[in-house]
Amino acid sequence: MHSRIIGLTGPTGAGKSTWSAAFRTLGCAVIDCDKLARKVVEDPAVQKALQMEFGGDILKNGVLDRRLLASRAFADKQSVQRLNAVTHPAILEQITHEITEYEQRGIGIIIIDAPQLFEGGLEKMCTLVAAVLAPQQIRLKRIMQRDKISEEEAWLRMASQYGDDYFKEHADCILDGSLLPQEVPQHAQKQLQAWLGESI
């Protein structure tokens, strides 16, 4: 069986996780690329490549200092590209494996939850792409609370990613990331019905 694969993307803090959780509750399979990224950076070969790019001190007593890595990897767009060049091939391999497993289980819709969907070329695997967008001030507050970082660090992370215009131009549909968490499930259900009603 060939599943419909929907790429779910958007800038950091936009509310992607809330939407993907709602889709999971509705019976979709969700491949969380952030989780896969955290998994692949535990691979010694990946860690060695990251040290070459971002400094040997990101590994301390065999343990990856994720905050130090993030401060360097999200410093600017070029640094993000260097991070992606190391991690994306390993993440892509994991995604392909999970898609095969879900298809074998007969799951009709698979969501690839990927903040770096376009950077990794993952949109080529998708039937359609949905982007979750929210105003900058909402995103800023969420990022600071979620990652326990300063306003300056949060702005740096936001600046290292594509802006809303890019997502509006490249996504097939836009999902509202400014909704309250309790409002998302009913909107997700309507969106899913719309997708299922279309020959996507």
From TrEMBL:
Cellular component, GO, one term: cytoplasm
Q: Where in the cell is it found?
A: Cytoplasm
- Sites where the protein binds ATP: G13, A14, G15, K16, S17, T18
Example of a GO biological process term:
coenzyme A biosynthetic process
A Pfam family it matches: CoaE
Q: Which domain of life is it from?
A: Bacteria
- For the protein in the UniProt heading, the enzyme class is transferase
UniProt EC number:
2.7.1.24
Which CDD domains does this one have?
DPCK
Keyword Signal set for record: no
Catalytic activity reads: 3'-dephospho-CoA + ATP = ADP + CoA + H(+)
Q: Which GO terms describe its molecular function?
A: ATP binding; dephospho-CoA kinase activity
Q: Which SUPFAM superfamilies match?
A: P-loop containing nucleoside triphosphate hydrolases
Major location category of this protein: cytoplasm
The entry's keywords: ATP-binding, Coenzyme A biosynthesis, Cytoplasm, Kinase, Nucleotide-binding, Transferase
Q: In which pathway does it act?
A: Cofactor biosynthesis; coenzyme A biosynthesis; CoA from (R)-pantothenate: step 5/5
Q: Which InterPro entries match?
A: Depp_CoAkinase, P-loop_NTPase
Q: Write out the similarity annotation.
A: Belongs to the CoaE family.
Q: What does this protein do?
A: Catalyzes the phosphorylation of the 3'-hydroxyl group of dephosphocoenzyme A to form coenzyme A.
Question: Which NCBIfam families does the entry link to?
Answer: dephospho-CoA kinase (TIGR00152)
UniProt xrefs under HAMAP family: Dephospho_CoA_kinase
Please report the name of this protein according to its UniProt entry.
Dephospho-CoA kinase
